[in-house]
TrEMBL record:
Coiled-coil region list: none
Top-rank lineage group of the source organism: Bacteria
Transmembrane spans: 21-43, 55-73, 85-108, 114-134, 141-160, 166-183, 195-215, 230-254, 261-281, 287-305
Entry keywords, A to Z: Membrane, Transmembrane, Transmembrane helix
Residues of the EamA domain: 25-156, 167-303
InterPro entries membership: EamA_dom, EmrE-like
One cellular-component annotation, GO: membrane
Protein name as annotated: EamA family transporter
Length: 313
């Protein structure tokens, strides 16, 4: 395997083996958007039972425990591709910080406000990926992403009342997520989704275990260590299983399609979250939410239509 190439504004992304597969990438991203809300649902249910850092640690322990045996059976070795350990470690650390920050955010502020701030991530990703990865952005993709963001705001309708410094938590999540996706596009040239997520599980678990060991007596509630009841243990496993499954689809999507193309489709997560909210909690969307959902779905359909038209030439 080749040594790691530095990411830079003049570094065009090498294609993965077999090249990009845009229809598959779109389908995988839509699947991620359907699965991802379950991470937040289980994390919200665990609020008051399991502190954020401990919950994030459990998420990565489950991820590593599930995927390492699969990787060993498929490849009969656990070493990553040559020269990729630093990038694997960085991906895991970034997702560990992102997960902890968002869990802490939704426990300290309205989830609508947290989601509204976090969903600047697709816009940032669309803008930055052209510079860092050399991928084509184009005004249509940027417009679709912007329209999707506006639709998301209509759905969540954040109040932004009395946020203060806590608003930095979902912004930190968004920043870490963007860097995580950029590294995913790079590492996907040489590794498959299972390998990437197995190594990210190891890295994320080590980061969270170190943070918990050093700061559990600091007095910060997020870093407290508790012995949860059976329901808490079940929710820790559920968060890990949901995150592992959803992020396998996310990584597989970004391995197959450019980041600017997939970014608008991430807003479909808002749609699925609204559907699950109605199904589980009886939160029926009002007229403004339906309008926002229609805008988000429309921006996603526009992306799919544009790519199918481009594929036909």
């Amino acid at each position: 395997m080749p040594r790691v190439q530095p990411l830079g504004p003049h570094t065009a992304p090498a294609p993965r083996a077999g090249g990009d597969n845009i229809p598959a990438g779109i389908a995988l991203m839509i699947t991620f958007a359907v699965l991802a809300p379950w991470i937040d649902i289980f994390a919200k249910l665990a609020s008051g039972m399991v502190p954020p850092v401990q919950l994030t640690l459990a998420r990565f322990v489950v991820q590593a425990a599930v995927l390492l045996p699969v990787l060993a059976l498929r490849r009969r070795r656990l070493r990553p591709a040559r020269g990729l350990w630093p990038l694997h470690a960085a991906r895991g650390a970034l997702m560990a910080v992102a997960s902890t920050a968002f869990i802490a955010a939704v426990q300290a502020m309205p989830i609508a406000d947290a989601m509204a701030i976090f969903f600047v991530a697709p816009l940032l990703l669309t803008a930055i990926s052209g510079l860092v990865l050399g991928e084509e952005v184009g005004w249509r993709r940027l417009t679709a992403c912007t329209v999707g963001f506006l639709g998301a705001l209509l759905v969540v309708r954040p109040s932004f009342a009395e946020l203060g410094p806590v608003a930095l938590l979902p912004l930190l999540t968004a920043s870490c997520f963007v860097l995580y996706v950029l590294l995913t596009r790079r590492v996907a040239r040489d590794e498959g989704p299972v390998a990437m997520q197995a190594y990210a599980g190891i890295s994320g678990a080590l980061v969270m275990a170190l943070a918990l060991a050093l700061l559990h007596d600091s007095g910060w509630p997020a870093f407290a260590a508790v012995r949860p009841a059976l329901a808490g243990w079940a929710l820790m496993v559920a968060v890990g299983a949901a995150a592992t499954t959803a992020h396998l689809f996310l990584v597989a999507a970004y391995a197959r399609a450019p980041a600017p193309l997939l970014a608008p489709l991430q807003y479909l997560e808002i749609v699925s979250a609204t559907v699950f909210g109605y199904w589980l909690f009886g939160d029926f969307p009002d007229a403004l939410k339906w309008t926002g959902i229609a805008i988000i779905v429309g921006s996603g359909l526009f992306v799919i239509w544009r790519e199918r038209r481009a594929a036909r030439g």
